[in-house]
Amino acid sequence: MVVAAFTWTEFAQQLAAGIREGAIYAGLALAIVIIYRSTRVINFAQGEMATFTTFIAWSLMNHGLSFWTAFPIVLAIAFTGGVAIERIVIRPVEDAPVLTIVIVTLGLALLLNGLTSVIWGGANRQFHGPFSTRTIDVAGVPVSVQDIGIVLVSIGLVAVLALFFRFTKVGLALRAAAVNPDSSRLVGIRVGWTFALGWGIAAVLGAVAGMMIAPVVFLDPNMMQTILLYAFAAAVLGGLDSPLGAVVGGILLGVTITLLGRYVGFLGSTLKLPAALMLILIVLLVRPSGLFGRVAVRRV
Amino acid sequence: MRSRLWIGLAGFAVLALVIAALPRFISDFRARELAIVGMYFIALLGLSVLTGYSGQISLGHGAFMAIGGYTTAVLSVDGIYGHQIRDLWTIPIAGMVAGVAGLLVGLPALRLSGLYLALITFGIAVSLPQLPKKFDQFLGGTTGKILNLAKPPFGLATTANNWIYYLTWGIALVLLVAAWLLVGSKAGRALKAVRDSEVAATSSGVSLATYKTLAFGISAFYAGIAGSLYAIANAYVNPDVFPIILSVYLVVGLAVGGLESLVGLIAGAGLIYFLQNHADSVAGWINHLPVFNLDPKQPGIPSMIFGVVLIVVMLLVPTGVGGLVRRAFGPLTSRLYTRS
Q: Which residues of B touch A284 (CB under 8 A)?
C-alpha cells in the first residue's frame, strides 16, 4: 500500500479525470431523472437502451456514415424506440404497483441486453467518437479534447433540458402530468402521451450518453451494467427529480470516486462500486431528496 | 381454516412422494439438474416471503446466495482455526451468516420503500462481486476457491449426484413447510398487512421495524442455504458462479412462479435452470417459427428469452403459474374453503 508522493499536477490530472467520469455518469443519470420526473418510475433498462442505440450508431458508422451524419439518425431512432417502449410495454402496467413496473423494466433490460448480443455478438468493439483524443494544455494540466467535449455535452444537455422544462408548453405539461395526472387531464393535457414523450426524451439522452461513453470504454453489450449503478448514485445524490442535480451529482460522484480510488490505498479500483453503493445508502438515509431534489410530502 | 391444513398436507404428501421416487426413473445427470432446480426453489421461497408477502423488492438476492456459498467454501476449505468443517454442517451456518447480512440490509430498508429499496438491493448485487476480488487471500479472488467434492456421508450407497438431489430437496421440503407455516401465522398476516398498507398496519399495532427487518433476515437465510448447496454441488465458488444477473433471474423466477404461491415457485425455479442451461434447444424451437433464424450458440439468447418471458408474464398473468393453477382449481377448492 505504497502511495506515491503527492504532487499538485497529478492531483489536477486526477481531478480532470474525475470530472470526465462524472460527466459520463451524469449523461445516464439525466435520462433516469427525466423518466422519473415524468412518470415516477425508475428505469432499470436505461443502461441497456443506451447500449442498444450506441450499437446502432456503430453499425451506421461501420457502413461509412460519419459520426455527425449518424448522430441525428440515431437520436431519431432512440426517440421512436423510447416512445414505442412506453406505449407497448409500460402503458399496460401504468397503474400497477411499483414492484410490477420495476420488474417490467428489468425484463426490458434483459431483453435488450440479449438482443444486443444476438444482433452484434458479444465481442468488444472500438467506437470512434466525435472528439479527438489529442491532449491539450489547460493551465498546465494535460487534458484530452475528448474529455472536454464530454463535459461540455453534458452541461449543454442540462441547459437545454432546463429551458425545455421551464419555458416550453410541452415541458410544462410533462411536469404537470407527473405531479398530478388527474388535474392535468382536466386542463386538457394528454397524460398518456406526456409519459411516452418522457420515455422518448430519456431514450435520446441515453443514446447521447452511450455515444459519449463508448469511445472511452470499449463498446460491448454489458458496458453500461456498472455505469448504471454510478448513474443511479449520481441521480440519487443530486435528487431524483432534478436534472441539474443529476449533472452536479454525477460530477461530484466522479471526482470523489476517482480521488478516493487514487489516494485512499485501501479502496483501490475494486472497491469503487461498493463505495458508490454506500454513497446511495447514506444519501437516502440522511437526505432522501438529494442535494437539489424537492422534499417529498405524502398526503395520507 | 381446517380445510387449508388438510389440502396443504395432502398436497405436500404428494409432492414429497414424487420427489422421493423421481431419482429411480431418471438418469444421474438429470438428478443433478433437478437438484440445482431445488436450490433455485429454496432461494425463491425466501424471495417470496420478502417480495410476495411483505412487498419489499430485492434485486440483490444473488448476493445473499453468494454470501452463503462463500461461507461454505471458507469453512470447509480453510475451516475455523485450521479445523475444516464438513460441508454438510456448513449449510446452516451459511444460512445464518446470510441471514445476518439480510438483517443488516433490512435496517436501512425500514426507511426506504419501493423504488429506493430496488436501487439499494441492485447496488448490492452489482458491488458484492467486487469483495472477493479485493480480499483475494481470504476469498480466492477471481479464480475463486475449490471445495472438496461432495460425497454421501455415513457410507450411504448412492452416487454423489443422487446425494445432492436428496439433500437439496430434503432441505427444500423442510423450508417449504416452514415458509408455509410462516405465511399462515400471525407473523405472516402482519407481513401482508405491511405490504398492503404500511399506515393501516402501523395503526393496527403491527411493528413495521420488526416485520420488515425480519422478512429480510428470513429471506436472506433461505438464499444463503441455497447458495451453500450450490457451492457444494459445483465444488467451487468464484464471482462468476453468482453473477449480477442471477439476482434478476431470481426475480423472473418469482414472477413466473407467482408472487404469492409457494409451490408454484418450483415452476419458476425450473425455468431459471432450463433457460440458462438449455437455451440452445429453446432457440431451436423458436427457429421453427417463420422469420426467426437464431444461432443456438449465441450467448445473448437466454437473457433475451428471460426478458420476453418476464414482460409477457407481468403483462398477461401477473399472478404467475401459481395464480393460474389457483384459478383453474378455484371452483373446486373454494367450496372447501367456504365457511359456514
A: 108, 111-112, 116, 119-120
